[in-house]
Amino acid sequence: MSYLERNLKSTPRGFGKVLYFHWPLAILIATISGVGFLMLYSVAGGNIDAWAQPQMYRFVVGFVMMFIIAMIPIAFWQRMAIFAYLFAIALLLVVEFFGDVGGGAQRWIDLGFIRLQPSELMKIALVMVLASYYDWLDESQVSKPQWLLLPLALIAIPTALVLKQPDLGTAMLLVAGGGVVIFAAGVSLWYFGALLAALAGLVAAVFYTRGTEFELLNDYQYRRIETFLDPSISPYADGYHITQSKISLGSGGYAGRGFMEGTQSRGNFLPEKHTDFIFATLGEEFGFLGGITLLGMYMLIIAFCMISAMRNKNRFASLLTMGIAATFFFYFSVNMLMVMGFAPVVGVPLPLVSYGGSAMMVLLGAFGLIQSAHIHRPR
Amino acid sequence: MMEFDHKGDIKRSRLSRRALMLGGIQTAVAGVIGWRMHQLGVKEGDQYRLLAEENRINIQLLPPARGLIYDRDGDLLTINDRVYAIEMVREQSRDPELILNRLAQLLPLTQDDIDKALADMKKRRAFVPVTVATGLEWEHIAAVSANAPALPGVTPVLGLNRQYPKGPEFSHIVGYVGSVSDYDLNETDDHDPLLRIPRFKIGKTGIEATLEKPLRGEAGIKRIEVNSLGRVIRELDRKEGASGVDIQLTVGQELQTYTLNRLKGHSASAVVMDVTNGDILALASGPTFDSNKFLKPISQADWKDMNDPHYRPLVNKAVAGTYPPGSTFKMVVALAALDAGVVDAAEEVYCPGHMEVAKRKFHCWKRGGHGHVHLREALRYSCDVYFYDLALRVGIEKITLMAHKLGLGERPNIQLPSIKEGLMPTKDWKRKVKKKDWVLGDSINAGIGQGFVLASPLQLAVMTARIASGMKIEPRLINLYNNELYPTRGLEPLDINPAHLELVRRGMYEVSNHRRGTAYGARLKEDRGGPMAGKTGTSQVRQITAAERRKGVVRNEDLPWNRRDHALFVAFAPAANPRYAISVVVEHGGGGSAVAAPIARDIMARTIKLGDKGYGNLPNTRTREQT
């Protein structure tokens, strides 16, 4: 990094670390969150109390948390990886048995002050534990099948638990996030080729078993996929979401209808306008320009992370950064593709923008890890 | 150290390679996202913008207030009653059954009503509003409005219900309104979106039907911004419609009621006209029906009554009934012969009681015959043989020509439905329609208004008015149309020698006022406004065979009702200075002089007694309801 680059021979210490923070990344995160506040203010019809303000409080808490995590050496987080993973597994088991049922799926643990979503935590914990594993494993061994078993199990266990909730979106993100770490670690491309083939087979199997007693997905999951493939099946039921969000995005045109002028969200035509479909409102009010700007900012975050990861000689830090960046990428890309009708409606929020405590906190925490990796990189 | 570094470099380069691959994939996906944004927002933006507008903007029709119909005195014949109703749109309700059950807690809805509404909604397209309940009180509407958030797709509406305060007396003229049928929607040229409003009513018969479009008015349009539940956020703009036009009839209630009452007990009709301007003062067809009964589901018994096959209450016989005019047609024959110059006032014809033409005997109604009669006498006694002779002399073509001059065989131009034009035969007509040649017997029959000749009571009234006034008077049913005087038509003199008209009028005078005139018994005395001049008619509806005649013709009273003769009478009064004309037709009533003439006399007496009070003013201010 060229800014404030002093040829340090060793990692910075104490409050001096603040200087070596990845400030552009932090500012970008704050900017995107700011866009989120604006949008939440707008979809509430100019009401700050509904969503924008609680979101701001969480952001402040999360941002502070990000700094705290960043201050702690990455080596500590590497040691914590396995515990974070086990903790997240334990929480998933807790929701499995005691969780509140919200929106037809068990996802939450209500701790009173915050409703914790263990699957969000799991996404980061999984990346941490896999990065830690591949840091420990000699690189020449990575493509050996016996050394692949453990990482696959590490992915499979939480995925199975999340699927059981059922939460298809998070399950997909877990598999993808874990897969990216394995990929980055250098596992032979043949495996991935085989995986793609297997995936195609699985998709076929999913549809082939529909209606039999061996159904792999729930009925609502089938329906969501079906309406994704053809929204006109039921424009006022399942396809309603996609149809309306496409209308919102499209009606924004090039420059949008202007802040607070979105008729789709103000008229409540848009479902889940403050959570999963908030991008549609952004598109409606700020148009193609607004959407592409947000996408650009997201991609800049990814770029910062990838560059930081490539420059980092610490293998754990590098893999962790890439894994988290990939998870972040999956968040916004799946959400945007879904809102634009290119992916099934799977319930993935727009990171840092959608209303929601857990995701915001976990993401800021994860960026704390990336910052820590950046600050404490070997010189 | 060196080796480690080297190995480290290899490691790094592999990780970097993978990172670049990842970055490449991510960039590609981002590219797809950006392309899709461009496609949605920029390339297809207009289309989605339109869809968003459709989402947001709901166009509501503002049904106009239907035009009102007044009688001659300026009294209302129709009123628009305020009524509250509840409409529901299926697609906005999402779960109509649930919403209906919620509604049932607020409104008096039975399970039947709910089932019917559900069936209605299923039948129609999802966005079509369906009336769930009607005839509601204001409290119900208030309750529904208060609970609107829990009742998506439900809208209270204010409607106007047509009522007919005068009941049966004007039913044939005013008619009634009814729901729009599939036929109205699909088979007519009327594409007014108002027709698609649930339970919108349009005229089905009478003036309500013939003047449907002006009475209906023009729909206003209200554009409102709504949310996804159909809840109104704000009104964007509105274009007021125009209420339907108001109409004042020439018919007054008092005379109309009297006329109908006088026809009671018969299947009969009567038309009273002002011969000076064609104003129809009464146009009655008995028995009548009550228009109000068509506003609600009709009971079986009522339906049966209204469709009585003999008395046919639903048919306006005054315009839709056509009858052989019988002897009332003799004026036409007389005028045709006089104008053609084949006869004069003094020429006498000998009537032995029958006439033989081509080995067929044509009888006079008086078996002994009338002896030598001239034209006035022939009219006075209604001598058939005289007119047989005249008809043969002048020929059917000239008779028909004269009939048309007097309005027979022409469609009367008034604003009522199912007006019949009757029939005035010609030789060509018979060849074309009946595929037979015209024979002398046909002319003979036509001479006494039998055979093929058909006319409606309205036409007979017009004929009488023209003879009485000497002008081409046209009937006029509407006085004010949208606050403008409806024109009087036909004030030019007839293309008939006035002296001949005067002669025929004289003959008609004698019918009613000569001691031996056929209608002397039903003359209008001077103290009742008389004298009047008339002509009786008795038209056969059956053929009397020679054999029957030998045995002696069966008396009318002994025949089954529907084979009895029609009784007709036409008249004008006062005889010296004609002002009013009347025609009365009593179906299967028997003799014109015995049945129709007294009815006509009484109606005429009442007409004269009521006199010409002129038109009543329409109320200037009245509340125009607009929903």
From TrEMBL, chain A:
The chain crosses the membrane at residues 20-44, 56-76, 82-101, 175-208, 286-307, 319-346, 352-370. Its EC number is 2.4.99.28. The keyword Cell wall biogenesis/degradation applies. Keywords: Cell inner membrane, Cell membrane, Cell shape, Cell wall biogenesis/degradation, Glycosyltransferase, Membrane, Peptidoglycan synthesis, Transferase, Transmembrane, Transmembrane helix. The keyword Kinase does not apply. It is found in: Cell inner membrane; Membrane. InterPro entries: FtsW/RodA, RodA/MrdB. It is a multi-pass membrane protein. It is an enzyme of class 2 (transferase). Pfam families: FTSW_RODA_SPOVE. Pathway: Cell wall biogenesis; peptidoglycan biosynthesis. It catalyses: [GlcNAc-(1->4)-Mur2Ac(oyl-L-Ala-gamma-D-Glu-L-Lys-D-Ala-D-Ala)](n)-di-trans,octa-cis-undecaprenyl diphosphate + beta-D-GlcNAc-(1->4)-Mur2Ac(oyl-L-Ala-gamma-D-Glu-L-Lys-D-Ala-D-Ala)-di-trans,octa-cis-undecaprenyl diphosphate = [GlcNAc-(1->4)-Mur2Ac(oyl-L-Ala-gamma-D-Glu-L-Lys-D-Ala-D-Ala)](n+1)-di-trans,octa-cis-undecaprenyl diphosphate + di-trans,octa-cis-undecaprenyl diphosphate + H(+). Belongs to the SEDS family. MrdB/RodA subfamily. Peptidoglycan polymerase that is essential for cell wall elongation. This is Peptidoglycan glycosyltransferase MrdB.
TrEMBL record, chain B:
Residues 63-236 form the Penicillin-binding protein dimerisation domain. It is a single-pass membrane protein. InterPro entries: Beta-lactam/transpept, Beta-lactam/transpept-like, PBP_dimer, PBP_dimer_sf, PCN-bd_Tpept, Penicillin-binding_protein_2. Signal peptide: none annotated. Keywords: Carboxypeptidase, Cell inner membrane, Cell membrane, Cell shape, Cell wall biogenesis/degradation, Hydrolase, Membrane, Peptidoglycan synthesis, Protease, Transmembrane, Transmembrane helix. It is found in: Cell membrane; Membrane. The keyword Protease applies. Residues 269-604 form the Penicillin-binding protein transpeptidase domain. The keyword DNA-binding does not apply. This is Peptidoglycan glycosyltransferase. It comes from Paramylibacter ulvae.
